[in-house]
């Protein structure tokens, strides 16, 4: 996404708009600051709740989850820029206590009861409420109006999802100067603050496993410090539907099986308050299993007055989520393969995202990299917002820090871009995935007008160039 004009408009902030939590940071003078919210927390739940009298965002909304589950919205990042008919959307809807319907354009609309009336909100509108909360948090802390922001997204967000995030920012009253990839932002933070100084080349792998997405990216320092020259992304990989929320869901399914085995009360499956309370208990147990090998999932009066309690071990948790852990490693291998880099050539493995605290994740990475010590020197929850704030400061022209003024970011396009060369959506790739951007490529094929370009420019999540298979493609420019 191209940068918007922003110079002269004061301090710009970096916002990590997460699936489960969001974070905002600012670069002032020669240092970055992660901004606490009105509760003193540096992370704000990406939740919005509606009641008969008002709307809550953040911590206040999170407090409504068990009391008002049908009108407390969370994980909306899994809807933004998607179609209602998408398989992943349909799978998520089965797990959410709130109602999601399709509009005439097949876009998901969230149905809530607000001030006694039924309302429908798009994912962009809900996200804008979270972004507005982050903007307000920054304004209170800085004591000034905040207009400009860099917002981060997962690497595998397509153009439709990125544009929808831009739209959410605009609705929130923000000038989104640029959308950047989450692991790229984290790597900026690591490169500026924590990476060892060396005159030799250095290869940094960022493994970002958050609340809802997995991002893996490989970054190359050609022999100058990242904070003094060109910052180049070599390759990216990931999954927009793999994170802490998915680990929680597997624990919820396990707990439901245990409840039904013990009590046979099928009605719990339609008890939204019970399911939401159970998910909260599972999330708490998951966190406990990062520091202990056994804990309990416990909910008083879960359903029909039954107090539910079951023991879960770390090994059982790992067994429940083995397929998800395997997907994590496949994404890592894909990133290295695309970059044509041997794993032994990686100098630093940087952990980002709250889910990298899971011991199984750390053990898999340590084993894959032959016992290499993992880099945990940056805060995994705050690194993305911190790096986005650095980039926002550069774009705004408000920084005079010598480490920042000459920094050049060279990211890559995560998805192949091409044109439709025939009927049935057969795609001819023009710009392969993991090409450094900005990039200018030409392909013989005659002269096209603007309308033809808008119709024919396509974006693919996967492409087999040798077989030229028919693919599920999205219109790149129109997000269709």
Automatic annotation (TrEMBL):
Q: State the protein's name.
A: Uncharacterized protein
Bilayer-spanning residue ranges: none
PROSITE patterns tied to this protein: HSP70_1
Q: Name one GO cellular component term.
A: endoplasmic reticulum lumen
Gene3D superfamilies reported in the protein's UniProt record: 3.30.30.30, 3.30.420.40, Actin, Chain A, domain 4, Substrate Binding Domain Of DNAk, Chain A, domain 1
- Keywords of this protein's UniProt record, alphabetized? ATP-binding, Nucleotide-binding
Question: Which top-rank group of organisms is this from?
Answer: Eukaryota
Q: Kindly list the places in or outside the cell where this protein is found, as annotated in its UniProt entry.
A: Endoplasmic reticulum lumen
Name the SUPFAM superfamilies for this protein: Actin-like ATPase domain (SSF53067), Heat shock protein 70kD (HSP70), peptide-binding domain (SSF100920)
**MF terms in GO:** ATP binding; ATP-dependent protein folding chaperone
Q: Which family does it belong to?
A: Belongs to the heat shock protein 70 family.
Looking up InterPro entries in the UniProt record yields: ATPase_NBD, Heat_shock_70_CS, HSP70_peptide-bd_sf, Hsp_70_fam
Please give the organism: Eleusine coracana subsp. coracana
UniProt entry tagged with the keyword Acyltransferase: no
- Xref: PANTHER family: HEAT SHOCK PROTEIN 70KDA
């Amino acid at each position: 996404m191209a940068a918007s004009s922003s110079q002269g408009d004061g301090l710009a902030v970096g916002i990590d708009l997460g699936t489960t939590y969001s974070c905002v940071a600012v670069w002032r003078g020669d240092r970055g600051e992660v901004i606490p919210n009105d509760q003193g927390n540096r992370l704000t739940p990406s939740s919005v709740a509606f009641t008969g009298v008002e709307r809550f965002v953040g911590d206040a909304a999170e407090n409504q989850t068990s009391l008002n589950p049908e009108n407390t919205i969370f994980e909306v990042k899994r809807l933004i820029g998607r179609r209602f008919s998408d398989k992943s959307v349909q799978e998520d809807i089965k797990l959410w206590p709130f109602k999601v319907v399709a509009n005439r354009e097949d876009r998901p609309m969230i149905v809530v009861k607000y001030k006694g009336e039924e309302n429908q909100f798009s994912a962009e509108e809900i996200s804008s409420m979270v972004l507005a909360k982050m903007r307000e948090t920054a304004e209170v802390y800085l004591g000034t109006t905040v207009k400009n922001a860099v917002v981060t997204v997962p690497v595998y967000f397509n153009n439709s999802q990125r544009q929808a995030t831009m739209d959410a920012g605009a609705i929130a009253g923000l000038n989104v100067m640029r959308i950047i990839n989450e692991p790229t932002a984290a790597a900026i933070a690591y490169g500026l603050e924590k990476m060892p100084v060396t005159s030799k080349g250095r290869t940094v792998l960022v493994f970002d496993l958050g609340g809802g997405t997995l991002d893996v990216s490989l970054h190359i320092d050609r022999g100058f410090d990242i904070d003094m020259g060109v910052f180049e992304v070599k390759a990216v990989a990931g999954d927009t539907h793999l994170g802490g929320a998915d680990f929680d869901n597997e624990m919820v399914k396990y707990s439901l099986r245990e409840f039904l085995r013990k009590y046979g009360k099928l009605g719990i499956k339609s008890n939204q308050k019970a399911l939401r309370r159970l998910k909260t208990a599972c999330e708490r147990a998951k966190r406990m299993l990062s520091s202990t090998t056994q804990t309990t999932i416990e909910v008083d009066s879960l359903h029909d007055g039954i107090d539910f309690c079951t023991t879960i071990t770390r090994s059982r948790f790992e067994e429940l989520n083995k397929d998800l852990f395997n997907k994590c490693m496949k994404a890592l291998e894909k990133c290295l393969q695309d970059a044509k880099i041997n794993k032994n050539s990686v100098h630093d493995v940087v952990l980002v995202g709250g889910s990298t605290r899971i011991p199984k994740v750390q053990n898999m990475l340590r084993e894959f990299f032959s016992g290499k010590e993992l880099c945990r020197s940056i805060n995994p929850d705050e690194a993305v917002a911190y790096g986005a704030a650095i980039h926002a400061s550069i774009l705004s022209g408000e920084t005079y820090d010598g480490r920042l003024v000459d920094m050049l970011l060279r990211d890559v396009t995560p998805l192949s871009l091409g044109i439709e060369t025939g009927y049935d959506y057969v795609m001819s790739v023009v710009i392969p995935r993991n090409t450094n951007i900005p990039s200018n490529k030409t392909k013989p094929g005659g002269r096209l007008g603007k309308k033809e370009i808008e119709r024919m420019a396509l974006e693919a999540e996967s492409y087999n160039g040798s077989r030229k298979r028919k693919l599920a493609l999205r219109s790149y420019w129109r997000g269709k």
